Amino acid sequence: MDYADYRHLVFERKPSGVLLITINRPEVLNATNARLHWELTQVWLTVDADPETRVAVVTGAGKAFSAGGDLDLVEEMAGNADAAARTMREASDLVYNILNLDKPVVSAINGVAVGAGLVVALLADVSIISETARLTDGHTRLGVVAGDHAAIVWPLLCGMAKAKYYLLTSEFLDGREAERIGLVSLCVAPADVLPRALDVADRLGRGSQPSIRWTKRALNNWLRQAGPIFDQSLALEMLTFMHGDVREGARAIREKRAPAFPSAR
Q1: In which order are the strands placed within the sheet that holds 9-14?
Q2: pLDDT at 54 (0 to 100)
Q3: pLDDT at res. 71
Q4: Residue 22, domain member (yes or no)
Q5: In which domain, by residue range, is 184 found?
Q6: Is residue 152 part of a domain?
Q7: 89 closest CA partner among 48, 34, 50
Q8: Which of 136, 109, 108, 105 is nearest to 123 (CA)?
Q9: pLDDT of res. 91
Q10: CATH number of 111's domain
Q11: What is the pairing mode between strands 9-14 and 18-23?
């Protein structure tokens, strides 16, 4: 794809081969509909093929990074094997296409990050978050397995005890706590998030490209070794989309109440 083909991602070239990518659905806090979910899988291939880009910075338009999956998409997948299979392929591509991109990615997490947006935020090579930003994996609150990315990266970033706590409970954590437990690289004041991310990207763009890219490639073998764990978590997530809990989870989110899952009655 060419950059002009994207509908929900905006691109801006910066000095030193830096490409700023903005998730651009601010009217819904940059939630991922079917099109944006697919675009987030493809953009890393476009960046990889772009000789002018040496570093990618990704952020969200407005006050959010990305507020998770659009509930219309969630409800389309519930009980729909074909839709779940399509989303499973895209969710796998999203993770592996970021991992296999040798060019570094910096995330500027300016606000709430959930779901597919959180995948990008935490799989970035350098993640910079606002003190006031809040994030959650959120899958178990919806009634599905935490399959998008969490099993492959959370235990490596913050340890198994913290990973299990936050993934099983779907509890939110803010930027300060995310930095304290090692889930992100840096936590800064809200006004400093994007400037700091662009500064880091500029330094990476002016650095030795083979050494930076191949260091990333080597380090990502830790994640590739966890590939079978991720693959199983993703398959189990799709299986839970066939279960009745997900419909109740989606209704509860729409109605802003605690879910009453059929499996817990």
Answers
A1: 9-14, 18-23, 55-60, 105-109, 126-130, 186-188
A2: 98
A3: 84
A4: yes
A5: 3-191+206-213
A6: yes
A7: 34
A8: 105
A9: 94
A10: 3.90.226.10
A11: antiparallel
DSSP class of residue 20?
E
Rounded to whole angstroms, the Cα distance separating 258 from 23 reads 29
Q: Show the beta-strand stretches assigned E in the chain.
A: 9-14, 18-23, 55-60, 66-67, 105-109, 113-114, 126-130, 134-136, 173-174, 186-188
Instruction: List, for the chain, all residue ranges whose pLDDT scores fall below the cut of 50.
Output: none
Burial 129-150 (b: 16+ CB within 10 A, else e): bbebbbbbbbbbbbbbbbbbbb
Q: What is the pTM of this model?
A: 0.95
Instruction: Please give the structure tokens belonging to residue 150.
Output: 């969490």
The string of DSSP codes covering 66-135 is EE-B-HHHHHHHTT-HHHHHHHHHHHHHHHHHHHT--S-EEEEE-S-EEHHHHHHHHHSSEEEEETT-EE
CA distance 45 to 148: 19
175: CB partners within 8 A, 6+ apart = 109, 129, 130, 131, 132, 133, 134, 184, 187
